[in-house]
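Thread title: Can someone regenerate the structure for this chain?

I was given the following input by a collaborator and told the matching structure tokens would be attached. They weren't. Posting the sequence so someone can regenerate them.
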Amino acid sequence: MIPVSVLDLSPVPEGSTTADALAATIELAQHTEELGYHRYWLAEHHNMPGIASSATPVLIGQVAARTRHIRVGSGG
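Best answer:
Regenerated them for you:
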């Protein structure tokens, strides 16, 4: 089987908060893990109001704490 990964920008949809976006990122990571994906990448972007992933080391820790075995890292 070819290992498949997900790259998440942690988008903040219009009308949502950063907290909503981060909660959605954790939920997506958990679902991705359940589906058997190999790795969950978080993209780091700064000064973009519609993107919540500017502090990837912090977000990586939050995602890793709420998943069991999927590999979590930053990239783009």
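The first strand starts at residue 5 and ends at 8.
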